[in-house]
Amino acid sequence: MRAYAAEGLGGVGDAHAVAPLINALDDNNSTVRRFAISSLGHIGDARAIEVIIPFLQDEEADMRCAAAVALGELGLSEDRFSTPPVQIIEALINSITDTDRGVCSAAVVALGRIGNPQAISALNTLAESTDSEWIRRYISEALHQIEEQNP
Predict the structure, then answer these.
(1) What domains can be seen in the chain, in order of their start residue?
(2) What is residue 103's DSSP assignment?
(3) 19-29 in b/e burial notation, b at 16+ Cβ within 10 A?
(4) What percent of the chain has a predicted confidence (pLDDT) above 70?
(5) What SS3 string covers 55-85?
(6) What are the pLDDT digits (tens) for 77-131?
(7) Which of 120, 127, 70, 73 is nearest to 97 (CA)?
(8) Nearest to 36 by CA among 6, 61, 64
(9) 21 close to 39: Cβ distance less than 8 angstroms
């Protein structure tokens, strides 16, 4: 029930839901925490950034993946010419080398969506070192997105 409530609050998209969702990040149930992370990303309130970043180090890959996706959403701005918070970019760059390919992929995709050129070097380095064709495809798309957003 708590997990569905956390998910529902994200669907509402209201800033009043941010504080209860941040509180839900301490829930004993990992599904509740994961839905709260996703909902915070969907709402897009900057207060969520600092509380989500630590989840990139969670022992559960699903939690790290949810955090990468949420940070990708938080890094987007209505004003595409504004600079996303540097801590989001740095946290996602650190996550592209995650041992879980799903987390790595989510971080790469998020960096591409955000479009910050600061990620180019790290993405190129990963492209040269990964043995995963899928990761290389995600990197290629992310680099293309960054290039399009920074003519």
Answers:
(1) 2-149 (1.25.10.10)
(2) H
(3) eebbebbebee
(4) 87
(5) HHHCCCHHHHHHHHHHHHHHCCCCCCCCCCC
(6) 654 446 678 899 999 999 999 999 999 999 999 999 999 999 999 999 999 999 9
(7) 127
(8) 6
(9) yes
Distance CA 151, CA 140 (A): 17
Tokens representing residue 117 in the block:
């050129």
- In whole angstroms, how far apart are CA 142 and each of 20, 92, 115, 148? 33, 13, 8, 10
20-65: per-residue pLDDT in tens? 899 999 999 999 999 899 999 988 888 999 999 999 999 999 999 9
Q: What are phi and psi of 126, to 5 degrees?
A: -65, -40
Is pLDDT of 72 > 60?
yes
pLDDT of residue 15: 73
